[in-house]
User: What shape does this take?
Amino acid sequence: MKPDIDIAREAKPKKIGDIATGLGISEEYLELYGKFKSKVNLSINKEKLKGKKKGKLILVTAISPTPAGEGKTTTSVGLVDGLCHIGKKAMICLREPSLGPCFGMKGGAAGGGYAQVIPMTDINLHFTGDFHAIGAAHNLLSALIDNHIHWDNQLNIDPRRITWKRVVDMNDRSLRDITCGLGGTGNGIPRQSGYDITVASEIMAVFCLASDIDDLKKRIGNIVIGYTKSNEPVRAKQLNADGAITALLKDAFQPNLVQTLENNPAFIHGGPFANIAHGCNSVVSTKLALKLADYVVTEAGFGADLGAEKFFDIKCRKSGLKPDAVVLVATTKALKMHGGVEKEYLGSENIDAVNKGCKNLERHIENIRKFGVPVIVAINDYVTDTEKEHNAILKFCKKTGVQCKISSHWEKGGEGAADLAEEVAKIADSGSSKFKTLYDNKMSLWDKTQYIAQNIYGAADIIADKKVRNQFKKLEDDGFGKYPICMAKTQYSFSTDPLLMGAPSGHDVPIREVRLSAGAEFIVVVCGEIMTMPGLPRIPAAENIDLDDKGLIQGLF
Assistant: This one.
């Protein structure tokens, strides 16, 4: 089949005003970015949509990721096209792609094959400038911190205890650890710091969890940037930073409206890291979509043990959202990898490996059921799959008591996802969802972390040294004990060992450090080695991206 970028370029998009009209959004609420992209002014909520009945919310998640790929975004797009194909009014809510992965190893995040959102090149590159605004907002706070210390430091900020770094939306390992303020007294106070990638910024997490612009400002003001010399937390509002940062984010905070290859509506807005943050698109775009469509499909980053758990325990807990159904994506290739097959041998039929890999699928099914939401398995069909491999998965799912549908959206678009869409709509309409969060806010931070590790990862226990245990205690002493936990660990395994595939159990989860996200209102628990500033691979994707003689971008995937 043709490369994704060629398929996207051959699409026949509608003008974005026509897409908006189909949703009931009039021109007065659009802020156009050319013919095929637009911001939607959130004032429409109060002026046109107040009291309107909400649609059904469907989460797409996946088994533990593998280098073979699972196609979660592709399946999300295909499902929406499938729902529209069978006559439903549906739309999708996705995260915005980061430039780092686009130029690195992973590539873009606009779907694939005949299940994509467009304009693909715009979405994967600068889009509407949201990430630039978030990066500028984050670095404004960084500049204000160093400026405050330079001019008398009235808040008594300890330069050794500043936790707020700088950010850039690029994979650049050389910026992980830096020394700033060198060159004399006029250049600030020398101190050690570093850079994170923009998607790891707490501003990004705050941006995606805020319910409105006032809530955004409040959360920004509550960000803890570091500590005083007497070890008291210092907040952004003490630096009078919240007003200017909110002003920088005013336009970016409006959801971005685009479309799929089949001209179905899509909000793509926000993009927090799925490890250090909660890995979901913005609350405001999800809630707006639920007033505009009967079915809203969204996704959460990585596998269900990270993405779905955080979607439920952080995004839904904080926003009041209640999902009606979950689609769990699996592929024969990924299941074979979880069954012990090396990547170079995945093209060969191997029923035994598929059956062994289904242990990973089974663990994710069990976990989702703990949240009270009905789940259906979607087999993302690959051209190399065999009927026997599909039948093995179907047989396993039947034995486990879950519906399973084969979906060929990558090859056939919405038509290929029609069977999946029919079943998902039936489940979402059934009213069978009894959504609940995994744990109660009143549990201690340590107990919440332990509960996630034991009930989602299959761990025997969590372990930490005295320094980390003291961090838990200090956070509770400082008044942050009721916050949910945001686990940061490898996405490739239920354990903290990325090479331990399948469904390991009985392992210990070592906790390396604990970080406060007071604006986002969650506690980040770092397990194992987690990078907030990725590096580029030996041969980065950027080397294959170029402009052709017609001025068209080539090489994006």
